[in-house]
Amino acid sequence: MDRLQRIALGSIAVGCLVLGIKFAAYAVTGSVGLLSDALESIVNVATAIAAFVALRIASRPADDNHPYGHSKAEYLSAVVEGVLIVVAACAILRESYEGFIAPRPLEAPVAGLAISLVATGLNAAWATLLVREGRSNRSAAIEADGRHLFTDVVSSVGVVVGVAIVYLTHVAVLDAVIAALVAVNVLWAGWQIMRESVGGLMDEAIPEATLGQVRELISTNATGAVEAHDVKTRRAGKMTFIEFHLVVSGDMTVSTAHEICDRLERVLRAAIPDTTVSIHVEPEEKAKHSGIVVV
User: Fold this and answer.
1) Which residues contact 281 (CB under 8 A, 6 or more apart)?
2) Which compartments does it reside in (predicted)?
């Protein structure tokens, strides 16, 4: 089991702990706002499990049925997470509606808020770790989990402030309004996560800055070739795929052309970890005079 999978297991454990703490806060106060916060934590646990399963699948090596590997499983996890977030938002809206129709006074709000703040602090610390590890390891599943937790932190802070206002003003219906606002925030987070994950599934190109780096490396390390054109890139989880056409002199030997390709593959893989490079060699008459000029 690698580091990312251990982190995903940790997310399940932290999610269960936070879920228990938040339901304790609800049990103490009877607040619909705190209940909405707890309901979102159920999704946190479910998505942490989905991320762990996706990482297990993504770590499998390429096989006959999946020659490009299984790394896109991480994007499926993020899509599942987005769907579950939408389901949680609908459940929260339902509780908000019932609280609006029949508002209830808060019980022991100070103790409940203190308990909720403990859960929020734990979530904030873990979310920071997840986003950092997800970005450094280019894991869509781990980063999506961390970003969702940050949304949960923002929601929790808003709930705590809102419940405190309810306690101070004694306007019980505000508790239901707070829950509805939490649902809207959750829906927005789910949409953002799903949109970015679908982009990965649709083979979006690598960021423009990284693509510029790729072009520069090809230009300065393809000595002996004429030009390179039709550069195409995509990402699948932590894997990056780069392909392009390399134009060489018509009288160049296959061995010499192969040496240039090997050199380009080495420098690209050194600059961008977990990269697969595919190069199509073409004779000089195929030059387009509009691609990458070889320095």
Assistant:
1) 245, 246, 248, 257, 261
2) Cell membrane
Dump pLDDT digits (tens) for 64-75: 888 777 777 767
Give the number of C-alpha atoms closer than 13 A to the C-alpha of residue 20, restricted to the C-beta side: 5
Tell me the two tokens of residue 62: 């390429």
Distance CA 191, CA 197 (A): 10
Q: Which of 1-15, 32-46, 216-230 has the weakest average pLDDT?
A: 32-46
Distance between start and end Cα atoms, the chain: 44
Phi (first) and psi of residue 207, to 5 degrees: -55, 150
What pTM, to 2 d.p., does this model score? 0.63
Please give the domain boundaries of the chain with CATH numbers for all domains. 3-201 (1.20.1510.10), 208-293 (3.30.70.1350)
Structural contact between residues 225 and 247, judged by C-beta atoms closer than 8 angstroms: yes
Half-sphere exposure of 208 (CA within 13 A, CB side): 0
Alpha helices in the chain (DSSP H): 3-29, 32-58, 73-101, 109-136, 140-169, 173-201, 208-221, 254-271
Residue 219, classified by CB atoms within 10 Å of its CB into exposed (0-12), middle (13-18) or buried (19+), is: middle
- pLDDT of 196 higher than 70: no
Report whether pLDDT(199) > 70: no
CA distance 291 to 208: 16
DSSP letter, residue 205:
P
Q: What is the mean pLDDT of residues 165-193?
A: 79
H-run or E-run covering 282 = strand 275-283
